[in-house]
Amino acid sequence: MHKGTARAYTNIALIKYWGKKDDALILPMNNSLSLTLDAFFTDTTVTFDEQYTKDVFYLDTVLQDEKATAKVSRFLDLVREKMDRPLFATVESINHVPTAAGLASSASGLAALALACNEALRLNLSKTEVSRLARRGSGSACRSIFGGFVEWEQGTDDLSSFARPIEADRFEDELAMVFILLNDKQKDVSSRDGMKRTVDTSAFYPAWVNTAGEDLTLIKQAIAEKSFTKLGEVTEANALKMHATTLAATPPFTYWSPESLRAMEVVKSLRKDGLECYFTMDAGPNVKVLCKKQDRQQIIARLTQEFSAEQIICALTGPDAHSIET
Ligand code: 2P0
Predict the structure, then answer these.
(1) ipTM for the whole predicted complex goes beyond 0.85
(2) Which of 72, 143, 187, 273 is the most core-located residue (most Cβ within 10 A)?
(3) CATH classification of 2-171, choosing from 2.40.100.10, 3.30.160.20, 3.10.450.50, 3.30.230.10?
(4) Quick one: pLDDT band at residue 98, thresholds 50, 70, 90?
C-alpha cells in the first residue's frame, strides 16, 4: 500500500488565465499571476494498492459517480505513467470551503491530488515538477503549489509550462481578499468550455492575448513597488477585459449576474469614500474584493450593509501546498 496526504490552498488570479494554446497538455495562451489564499483549501489522501481493481473517489466523504471518478482517473493515468507497475487508487478529498459557497475549487483540488500522489509514491518530484503535473489536471492548479504571489509561465511545451513564486518582500502579507458570494448554483458554462468558445469565436480574443503581456508587466511593477493602487487598478482592468471577451463569443455568454454588477458598484462607491479596494471576477457571478489587510474590517462592515453576513468571507494570503503526516 502506498499512501500520501497533502493540503493545497485555492488561488485567485489577478492577471487571468483565459484560453489554451494546447488543450491536451493545458498550455495557456498567456502568463497569469495569482494570489494564494488561506481561507479555502483541499485535503486529499491518495492510496495506491495492489488489491484495488478500479479507482474510487470520495469527495467530502461521499462516494462520487462515474463521471467525477473518470476525471480523477484521467489524472491518475498521468501519475501511473511514472510507475513501473501501475496500480489503481482510492482518492479521498475534503474541501474546506464554506458550505454552499459555490467555490469548490479545481485549483486546490488538483494541486492537493498531485502533491498527495508525489508523497504516496515517493516520486521525489520538485515543486516545479509537481506544478507541471497539477497543471495537467487543471491549469490554475499549477499556481496552487506555491503561496503568496505566483506566476504561471505559459511555456511552449509540457516541460516549460509551470508556476513559480514571485518574490515580493512580504507585500503579499499586507493584502486581503473579501469574497462576496452571490450564487452557489452550478454554472451554465464551465470555465473550460467558456475559454474554448472564446478562443475559437470571440473577435475580442486577439486583443486579450495582445495585451496580456502588458498587464503582466504592469502588475509585476506594482508588486516590486508595493503599490497597492497600481496592483488594484491592473487587477480590475484585467478582469473586465477577460469578461469582455465572452460577450463577443458565438454564442455570447457572461458570468455576470445583476447582483455581480451591484457588487461592483458597491466596490466603486467604497473607493469613492476613501476605502481603497478593487474587484475581480472569475468564471462565475461571485465578486472578490482586493483590499489592504488593515482595511478589511471596515470593508467587511460596509459590505454587510449591502449583503448578508453569510455572503461575505475574508481571506488572507495563503502558504505553499504541503504534505500532511497521517
Ligand atoms: C484563472 N480561471 O486564472 C481563470 C480566470 C477562471 C477565470 O483558471 O480547463 O479550472 O482545468 O485548465 O484552471 C479556471 O480554469 O481550467 C481558471 P482548466 P481551470 O483563475
Answers:
(1) yes
(2) 143
(3) 3.30.230.10
(4) low
